[in-house]
Design a protein that fits this description.
Blueprint lengths: L3 E8 L5 H14 L3 E5 L2 H8 L8 H27 L5 E6 L11 H11 L3 H5 L4 E5 L24 H17 L6 E4 L5 H15 L4 E2 L5 E6 L8 E10 L5 E10 L2 E11 L4 E9 L1 H7 L10 E10 L2 E8 L7 E6 L13 E6 L8 H10 L1
Parallel strand pairs: 1-3, 1-4, 2-3, 4-5
Antiparallel strand pairs: 6-11, 7-14, 7-15, 8-9, 8-12, 9-10, 10-11, 12-13, 13-14
Helix pairs in contact: 3-4
Amino acid sequence: MNDIKKIVLTGGPCAGKTTALVRVIEHFSSLGFKVFTIPEVPTLFTQAGMNYLTKNEGFFYEGEKATLEIQLALEDKFQRMAQECSQPCIIVCDRGAMDISAYMAPEMWADITRAVGTTTAELRERYDAVLHLVSAADGAEQYYTTANNAQRYEQMNEEGLRIARSLDKKVIHAWKGHPHLRVINNHDDFDTKMRRVLKEISSVLCLPQPIEEERKYIVEIDGQLPDDCIESDIVQTYLQSEPDCEVRLRKRGFDGKFVYVHTTKKKTSAHEELVTERQINLSLYEMMLGLADPQCTTIEKHRHSFIWQGQYFEVDTYQGALTGLVILETKGIADGEPVKFPPFLNVVRDITGDQEYYNHNLAKKNHKE
């Protein structure tokens, strides 16, 4: 059967999804992939007469239910088409099923998914990766515009920017718990944002990527973290592996529910590595724990993930023997681009590229002590 990857491009208003879709089609078609694209269903519905701002609850319910049904039907039809192709295929969705949940109360979403015969967990599992492009309304306000989408409700004024930022946060929370959720920052150079999209999709397709050091800092928390943080508990176990290869299991908990991921990182050259991630079930996770590297101990940490002024951060508070260590890691900030440190964090030390603080080495050091 053809190896088909299904990827969601999502994010708040004016995030660059339309441009990203064009870049994805051009780039991966040139590499020999057949690229299918699923259009943004709510935009199709709005153009056809749906009013998502209606106060008629029955009309809104039926419209959102139909939106989900058509979204799933389009994806399923293109999946069947892709299975008949001889070349490797990518299905790129301009927003995915979970985006719909961000625009209604949880109770209505539960009613709609039940009526359609699915669940939130099943809808997240439909996709191999979710790329969340941060809205220009957050950290790149000078680029925010409604010119490329006449259907956009979030207008180019202070109230519109506030609504856009709020929607951006709601959408990212809707995808909370997906094992391959990646947040694509805003940049002064828009091409940098687009290159990050192509890099993340290339990773999903198991294409070797340049080794890049995300900027990392030892920090102290001095104040209240944002209320809209995504919180999770992480248990990371390293498995026995061959030289120049790192294999790990990760158990990540969100609100009492857990996701299990098996990751392999292998250097293909001095400057490139191949990273393969796959979600596994609890039974396989427990079985693979038997392959744990005896030279490493388990890493446990509590993570706060959030967007601050258009940049994505993860704050890991380590537990167990590493209690007291707090590391801030940036995601996707380009070389030479300043880090917009949140005021509630004090930077103690820049540890970017310091191998002593790689999680694998922390696990080894912790074991020896």
